[in-house]
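WP5 quarterly update. Target: Glucose-6-phosphate isomerase. Source organism: Urochloa decumbens. Length: 567 aa.
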Amino acid sequence: MASPALICNTEQWKALQAHVGAIQKTHLRDLMADADRCKAMTAEFEGIFLDYSRQQATGETIEKLLKLAEAVKLKEKIEKMFKGEKINSTENRSVLHVALRAPRDAVINSDGVNVVPEVWSVKDKIKQFSDTFRSGSWVGATGKALTNVVSVGIGGSFLGPLFVHTALQTDPEAAECAKGRQLRFLANVDPVDVARSIKDLDPETTLVVVVSKTFTTAETMLNARTLKEWIISSLGPQAVSKHMIAVSTNLKLVKEFGIDPNNAFAFWDWVGGRYSVCSAVGVLPLSLQYGFPIVQKFLEGASSIDNHFYSSSFEKNIPVLLGLLSVWNVSFLGYPARAILPYSQALEKLAPHIQQLSMESNGKGVSIDGVQLSFETGEIDFGEPGTNGQHSFYQLIHQGRVIPCDFIGVVKSQQPVYLKGETVSNHDELMSNFFAQPDALAYGKTPEQLQSEKVPEHLIPHKTFKGNRPSLSLLLPQLSAYEIGQLLSIYEHRIAVQGFIWGINSFDQWGVELGKSLASQVRKQLHGSRMEGKPVEGFNYSTSSLLARYLAVKPSTPYDTTVMPKV
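Structure tokens (predicted):
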């Protein structure tokens, strides 16, 4: 039986490979001189404007990429996702994060059943609970209203909700709704993270949300037990049901933990962790902090891009164009990284979320059919808000490695500031850099320009910028809950497009399992050595030596004594 075909064996892929040579002979200085080309390399939807004219691409490149999309039946793959077909074949699951933000009257099926009513049932429950909580009607064990929330979860249960929370904190409407409240996240099993998450909080006014689909995630459940002990030590065991709730489908374990199953909020197997921000994973803690109406605006923004992605022609489809350009940069031009550079401090947690979303989705070495790939997939994603990043790693981007950049700007600041007598407002100063940096990367600076500026000869090599470094610009009209949802959805679908083109499964993550398995062996060893004095056995020399060194230092408190953070 013949192996399933890889996309790299198609004529369309080979045509792009042959096209690389022509692109390498061009420079962005020359490409940017063609106004018609620049005008054509834009797309707009609901005020979101994409300019990708600073990509190392021509109209011919885009045509060839669109033909590649046809060859992989991209439209059909997108439709299969939206129709609930089990495109996550290794786990035999649908991929329906779009259903989490679909309108109430939408029909999206999984296993022949419309899942939208069930989604809205959970959202209605979240709205009712969050309204009760925020009104002060839900009180803790001592009768006081709860104003602090700690959400305990890791990976997709943490990075996505943290990104949205951080972006909403300075939105005037959201900030007004959050007055007098705190939302914190506890993800890392490192006890330092525990200490930070509860610093200056009173258990008497704190609600803990435990986010774990199976209620068995090792790090999350240890952190949950730690905060449970924090509550019990202050308020007694009867306080747990008033101060802890859950996002989980394992009601049996939820109840055994001491949480009322009526205060457990469900999500589904067809929601991958890194795509779960729009489920109870994110909607519940965010609604407790900001109120459900704000979070619903966020969901509506995500849904608007879902519709754009599903129905717009590929030529003007923002997520599709972004996905195709990423494939071009990675698999044809050979650029292994991507910098995500939002010129908005409110988006400081965007890059860490996209890092997980992208690298966990597309960091694969085999096709969806299990065939070893002969080409690179996925990017190394990193980033920092401008202008901070300019004083950090832009040096490498300008004169070191070529790293395609996503510049994200906002027309209207969440928190405008203008000082009388200043040349420009604070936001205009920020955006001056947003507009300047892509051109600096594209055009660079030649030795001839430096000579005309009378730069000393010995400094010319150091001050020369080769340019020809690709970027794209995404300009948002403002940054309210709606636009935050749109931005999330754009990146989610962009990443899916890349996976669809490469022919990989962007919705499983087997790469995280091996480390977990090995960690369980180490855990048993640590327990045996600490409690029973067992020697280190069954590991290679290096790991055995490291473990012996670690175990040689006795813990300051015996294992049979409960110790809580002192910060």
